[in-house]
């Protein structure tokens, strides 16, 4: 606690009050009631919010019926919002996801026969990954953020990463240190690349960043953290890890700087050595400025060497490094707690062996550091680090990389993993669960399932849970849809063999191969095994089942079947080409092109799968034509080339979206087929080297183009899915 020059008795009172604030935010009834009004405005008057006292650091809620009203009690807004969602899902059979909402409430709200009381076993429920802020959230306005914060609260999230507006803070700090905006123009990245700029991987790419952006997003961050805190959340804000502008060399010629490179096609970035006195000074300046702008809950995210290797694996060096980073936080905020992503221990396990991990962690007091096991459902790092050597830690599910569109998840593992760890004595100081996906707005079932753990200590029984999930999502007890979900559980959601969801060969740069670097087509099931789920959804569609969630799932399953089928068609035209059968090759190549167009038509029926809203929302932030053009280029680049024409990350963030399929992937393949047709006609080998060079130029020109894409849906999901079913089902 901060020292206060006051009498001891007064100090004790203040200490108690501060402790309560740090562990258990008080209920703001007005904010909780406002959330109910936003979520269910037509029924909000039937809900009463009451405070529930708690001296423990773990949230709790109660639900009770009184005088035809539903009483929601909680120790803070998150607890009340969780109580609301519990009531909506368990008693009204409703559901709120990114991809499908069912709020078809009964005319008369169901009464609660006996009081319900829930207490979470997890002090922390963490949310977000640095990458989420760009792969999904790059262009969000306050309206979209408000919806997300409500979703977070209803799903029990109380510890969100909050890094919007960080660039404004740094501009203020550097301006006060004598750096001009011109000195910083090659430092700040474009808006689609902040995640990697913040983590020290790149400078300047996608910029120069307009000052208008910095100012608007400072204002946005103020709204975000105010709302999160009003609901009882404790936002995790950034801290300094050493990344400084190249201009630092001129301003401070004696500063100890190290050039480092992410090795992904970008220039060097510069890291200030933690031994340099400027390191602690700069860290303190940043936190002080940030606190002045956005307040603080004493939780700070700082990730050293994110996909960058340290200069030495000497444990003593690593220990001193982390001690100095923490000291920089502590000097600015004596109550600082360092929240560290454990991704480096997963992504570079050759370097991070037991002595190195222990050295990095042990230099910071246990109660001043919190570890995020970032992809526990893939590889539980806690199991090979003695549960992070006694540090408090959080069990997180990552699930999605790059915002790629696919049906994927480790359903059975997620249903059991957190509870098994919670009840395992070897997990030691496990204090939370969380969601750390690189992108959201896909596979809603997996995220609903994961957050089911917030209020229970035992594994989720999937056989029971899927029945409830289907009923809430589709507004029906139709058993065939539960049967379909069991098929999905055993296929796309079985989590076997592959790290993350497979892609369709369609999204890869044209090739004869069945896979590319960032278009991985290996499935964790046989494609034919998914077909029964498609059959059942199509039959349910014919019965008239038509909820928002059903429409999304019908389209998504149809999309996945067609995406898988692309590999079969590729094999056909490849074989015809090898056999020099011109007629058959043209026929099979056209079938491949037609499939892409069919997928585009299908996906145009759902906003979730459209390029237009992504581009439109990017342009909406621009206050001048030049700014709009810059933001559109950022938006196009991230989901295609990622960087420049020769960037090795091209397709890492590929999307199966209407608009992108017809305007980018299809013409790219068409150009490939033109070259192959010519080579057959001229009886020569295809000039793939020239094609590759030409297609990179074409892709880069596409990135720099400005064009409007539809922002409203076209067609009926049921009708188009049925059209695809009739066309492809027998062939499959």
TrEMBL record:
Organism: Arcicella lustrica
Start and end residues of each Alpha-N-acetylglucosaminidase N-terminal domain: 31-110
Coiled coil (residue ranges): none
Keyword Hydrolase listed: yes
InterPro entries in alphabetical order: GH, Hex-like_dom2, NAGLU, NAGLU_C, NAGLU_N, NAGLU_tim-barrel
Residues covered by the Alpha-N-acetylglucosaminidase tim-barrel domain: 125-456
Gene3D superfamilies: Chitobiase/beta-hexosaminidase domain 2-like, Glycosidases, N-acetyl-b-d-glucoasminidase
Keywords: Hydrolase
Protein name: Alpha-N-acetylglucosaminidase
Annotated PANTHER family: ALPHA-N-ACETYLGLUCOSAMINIDASE
Domain Alpha-N-acetylglucosaminidase C-terminal: 465-727
Classification of source organism: Bacteria, Pseudomonadati, Bacteroidota, Cytophagia, Cytophagales
Transmembrane spans: none
Entry keyword annotation includes Hydrolase: yes
